[in-house]
Amino acid sequence: MHSNQDILNVIIDAIQDKKGSGITVVDLEAIESAPTSKFVICQGRSTSQVSAIADCVREEIQKSIGSKPYNYDGYRNSQWIVIDYGNVMVHVFLPEYREFYNLEELWSDACITRIPDLE
User: What is the pTM of this model?
Assistant: First the structure.
């Protein structure tokens, strides 16, 4: 069984591999009403990059952890793709959609960790 941290590390590496930016981990474990224990939020500069990031996350989790997502949605427009791994949900946004939905602010009482961009 893999830990949430193992899964988070693979997700973050996959996002960085496709040059995703603004990676944020939102720890929701202490919040009773939260739908999951962790959100990983990031962004891509174009719809094709958003799709590529989401694809890479799914491929790397499958390869490294052996898990497929319970569900995923958003590929039709690729403005906001969500991938559900049960305890961890990955949100890949275009910058304007990330700003509009502002999940970090919505869950501002959670512990939020920002991962520095690779450049």
Answer: 0.94
